[in-house]
Design brief:
about 180 residues, alpha+beta, 7-stranded antiparallel beta sheet, 12 strands, about 40% strand
Length: about 180
């Protein structure tokens, strides 16, 4: 009876973990023009997470779609997260064109490779100070990153503790059976 209960609890814990999410990482090429390297760094990077397995997906995930659970762009001292200003086109799990724009106040970070344009345009723009860094006509790609939903660190510890308690109970039961 106890074993079934423990098995049911473990199955429920494992079933509650998010499954199938896919994360892509973006590494833009170095900026070809940069008004303020101290502010913008040398290139644009990013990550995007989708709430399903996209490794064989072909189609479009449009602007505002709930399948995008996180999109983040980073350039120098700026790091913006959101999900609203992103569109991705896939062919067999490969992001073939995209548009991601995130802004906070008067700073805008953008990466785009959407038709009818056939080149990548990465940009970091501080509108208030009129500083801009950009890279145009230089290809960059999104690559699949590590699983965004790793096994929680507490779960193996929990399983080890349950195993230790089971072993102690078994030894105690065995000891009591031999002393009677």
């Amino acid at each position: 009876m106890k074993v079934r209960f423990v098995a049911a609890v473990l199955a429920a814990l494992l079933a509650s973990l998010p499954a199938g999410a896919t994360t892509y990482n973006y590494l833009g090429n170095p900026y070809t023009s940069n008004d303020n390297p101290a502010e913008f760094g040398s290139n644009l990077t990013g990550t995007v997470t989708f709430n399903f397995d996209t490794t064989a997906f072909t189609g479009t995930i449009p602007f505002g779609d709930s399948a995008i659970t996180n999109a983040q762009l980073v350039s120098g001292i700026y790091s913006f997260s959101g999900t609203t200003n992103s569109t991705f086109n896939f062919t067999s799990g490969v992001i073939t064109s995209w548009s991601v724009a995130e802004n906070v106040g008067l700073v805008l970070l953008t990466t785009s490779n959407m038709p009818p344009f056939t080149n990548v345009f990465d940009q970091a723009w501080n509108i208030a100070e009129n500083f801009v860094a950009f890279n145009q006509f230089s290809p960059a790609t999104w690559t699949i990153g590590p699983d965004p939903t790793p096994l929680p660190a507490a779960l193996p510890l929990f399983a080890t503790g349950l195993g230790a308690l089971g072993l102690l109970g078994w030894r105690r039961k065995r000891k009591n059976a031999t002393t009677v």
